[in-house]
């Protein structure tokens, strides 16, 4: 019976512990690909993922494995992202599995996101198989890490698999453990269709392609299906599996993981987390949906060339289809013109979306500094939410401002506990707890304003601990804070896109640091440009960019024309990421100045 030989699993790990490398080894030894087709980190398909060495979108592949018991097994491997920003995607893909390989670096041990991922796997009732990876490293301590898995996570690690994904050691053991430990799917092939949509993407020729896991029943080409959340019906055009090449099939049945197209033109007709059923014989209850993740970080995206506005809207529409956590709405800025206010799960998510818009859609962008959502209680009793600092009302109209706080959990070697605590204090953190994982590693817990994490917390954490500390955080709610809006004036003009919200006690030093940073980042112009930071009418810091003295072209005067042209081109190149604000040319970096203060 085929169903008994299906194994659906994910790989979860803290970033860099070797998930993609292990996935590559598994792909190699289950020979889904010829050597020529196999390239390093096969599952990280997007260029951006390959460059940054991180996994953004989850992927599902079908593999076959001839086990030591002589049977041939069908594996569905669902890759998940490892970064904290993408935990909602991890959660989505885990719901399509019965088991998970938990990779832990044999030299690093358990990190903050190892734990976060384990909790997601436990929430989804998955069988967790511990895999201790990188045992080839001289600093590997597999026995210590096994003990840590038992003590900290509470999993039995006596049968943990030891691997070197790099050299290929232990891969067979991993495959056997999957066969032995991951339960086969339990659905009923004769029951009405019940399939989970765990991802979707838009294909210009085929419409929406949904990635599905069949829980009950069978789906065939030509079937009439219904989306349970939206009530919309469609006729199935194509179904298939990824090997990782898409391979068309006649049907998918219980336990299968694959794709389905049905000439679905409208993005909003499919929702990730929705249940697909048969239009004629619908199942009684939909599957429990996914937790909808709300964006926590907001910024403005503006096309440098205002003619690109409609293309930018289209790009955001496309990206939103693949990424339900991306939010956007039109906004206008006096300084930057027409653009969009966009919401993201975190900073990495924000950077990735920006880069994808620039690369995949060819639109040059100006992005404003990220902001969180502030809750403002007005003197007239009304409460409003502010996701754009320039929209913060006048001080005298405000009764009270609240900002989002997170519970930050920092895992660090003992030696850096002092440095971590100092950083957390500087970032307005409140100490909550400190837990020793073993004699050398500590989990330090603080409540910290999300805005501080969004700015530069992670960079500082890494540099203050030589990269040894790891961070995980979750939103815990709002708390009142003494927050004020600080405006930035260039050449006497208030630039709305540069306004920020600061804590009153830190306003002066921050204002001073920002005007100094802007002076560094904004190139000299033909005239002198004063820079000022203001709280209401009161100027709290100032500096001046001196006027440009000589004409750049003067030194080529009478010189050869090609050199002159090159110089002009170079200037144009530099201009690409500039926006003229009032009369001043402001480069992209200046809008992010607040993030780079030291
Ligand atoms: P991911 O972030 O969990 O997907 O991690 P990657 O698979 O991208 O691996 C992160 C880094 O660790 C890469 O430089 C890999 O080459 C390296 N790596 C992965 N597995 C091993 C291993 O078993 N031994 C050693 N020495 N390095 C490994
Ligand atoms: Mg990876």
UniProtKB/TrEMBL annotation:
GO terms for molecular function: GTP binding; GTPase activity; ribosome binding; translation elongation factor activity. CDD domains: EF4_II, EF4_III, LepA, lepA_C. One of its GO terms (cellular component) is plasma membrane. PROSITE patterns: G_TR_1 (PS00301), G_TR_2 (PS51722). Keywords: Cell membrane, Elongation factor, GTP-binding, Hydrolase, Membrane, Nucleotide-binding, Protein biosynthesis. It catalyses: GTP + H2O = GDP + phosphate + H(+). One of its GO terms (biological process) is positive regulation of translation. The keyword Protein biosynthesis applies. Residues 4-186 form the Tr-type G domain. It is a peripheral membrane protein. InterPro entries: EF-4, EFG_II, EFG_III/V, EFG_V-like, EFTu-like_2, G_TR_CS, LepA_C_sf, LepA_CTD. It is found in: Cell membrane. It holds the Pfam family EFG_III. The keyword Cytoplasm does not apply. GTP binds at residues 16-21, 133-136. It is an enzyme of class 3 (hydrolase). Its EC number is 3.6.5.n1. Belongs to the GTP-binding elongation factor family. LepA subfamily. Required for accurate and efficient protein synthesis under certain stress conditions. May act as a fidelity factor of the translation reaction, by catalyzing a one-codon backward translocation of tRNAs on improperly translocated ribosomes. Back-translocation proceeds from a post-translocation (POST) complex to a pre-translocation (PRE) complex, thus giving elongation factor G a second chance to translocate the tRNAs correctly. Binds to ribosomes in a GTP-dependent manner. This is Elongation factor 4.
């Amino acid at each position: 019976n085929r169903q008994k030989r299906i194994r659906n699993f994910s790989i979860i790990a803290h970033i860099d512990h070797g998930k993609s490398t292990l996935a590559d080894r598994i792909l190699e030894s289950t020979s889904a690909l010829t050597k020529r087709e196999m390239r390093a980190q096969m599952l990280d398909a997007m260029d951006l993922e390959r460059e940054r060495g991180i996994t953004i979108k989850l992927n599902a592949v079908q593999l076959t494995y001839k086990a030591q018991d002589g049977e041939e097994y069908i594996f569905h491997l669902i890759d998940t992202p490892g970064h904290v920003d993408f935990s909602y995607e991890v959660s989505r893909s885990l719901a399509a599995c019965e088991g998970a390989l938990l990779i832990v670096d044999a030299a690093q041990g358990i990190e903050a996101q190892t734990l976060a991922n384990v909790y997601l796997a436990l929430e989804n009732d998955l069988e967790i198989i511990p895999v201790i990876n990188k045992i080839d490293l001289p600093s590997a301590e597999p026995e210590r890490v096994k003990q840590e898995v038992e003590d900290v996570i509470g999993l039995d690690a006596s049968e943990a698999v030891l691997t070197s994904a790099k050299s290929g050691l232990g891969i067979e053991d991993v495959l056997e453990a999957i066969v032995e430990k991951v339960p086969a799917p339990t659905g009923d092939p004769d029951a009405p269709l019940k399939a989970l949509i765990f991802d979707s993407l838009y294909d210009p020729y085929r419409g929406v392609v949904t990635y599905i896991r069949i829980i009950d029943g069978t789906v065939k080409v030509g079937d009439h299906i219904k989306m349970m959340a939206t009530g919309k019906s469609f006729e199935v055009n194509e179904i298939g599996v990824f090997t990782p090449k898409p391979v068309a099939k006649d049907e998918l049945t219980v336990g299968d993981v694959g794709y389905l197209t049905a000439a679905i033109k409208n993005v909003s007709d499919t929702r990730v987390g929705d249940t697909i059923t048969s239009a004629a014989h619908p199942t009684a209850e939909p599957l429990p949906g996914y937790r909808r993740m709300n964006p926590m970080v907001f910024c403005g995206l503006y096309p440098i060339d205002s003619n690109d506005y409609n293309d930018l809207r289209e790009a955001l529409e496309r990206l939103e289809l693949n990424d339900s956590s991306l939010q956007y709405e039109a906004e206008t800025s006096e300084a930057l013109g027409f653009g969009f206010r966009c919401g993201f799960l975190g900073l990495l998510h924000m950077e990735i979306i920006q880069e994808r818009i620039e690369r995949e859609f060819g639109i040059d962008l100006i992005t404003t500094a990220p902001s969180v959502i502030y809750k403002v209680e007005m003197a007239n009793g009304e409460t409003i939410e502010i996701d754009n600092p320039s929209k913060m009302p006048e001080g005298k109209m405000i009764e009270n401002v609240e900002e989002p706080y997170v519970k930050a959990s920092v895992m660090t070697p003992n030696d850096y506990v002092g440095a971590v605590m100092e950083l957390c204090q500087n970032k307005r953190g409140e100490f909550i707890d400190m837990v020793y994982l073993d004699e050398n590693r500590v989990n330090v817990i603080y409540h910290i304003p999300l805005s501080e994490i969004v700015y530069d917390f992670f960079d500082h954490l890494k540099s203050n601990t030589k990269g040894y500390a790891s961070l995980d955080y979750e939103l815990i709610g709002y708390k009142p804070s003494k927050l004020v809006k600080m405006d930035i004036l260039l050449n006497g003009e208030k630039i709305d896109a540069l306004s920020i919200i600061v804590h009153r006690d830190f306003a002066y030093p921050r204002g001073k640091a920002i005007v100094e940073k802007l002076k560094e980042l904004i190139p000299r112009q033909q005239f002198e440009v004063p820079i000022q930071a203001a709280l209401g009418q009161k100027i709290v810091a100032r500096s001046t960019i001196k006027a440009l003295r000589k004409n750049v072209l003067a030194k080529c005067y009478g010189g050869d024309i090609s050199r002159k042209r090159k110089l002009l081109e170079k200037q144009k190149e530099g201009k690409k990421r500039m926006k003229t604000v009032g009369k001043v040319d402001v480069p992209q970096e200046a809008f992010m100045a607040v993030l780079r203060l030291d």
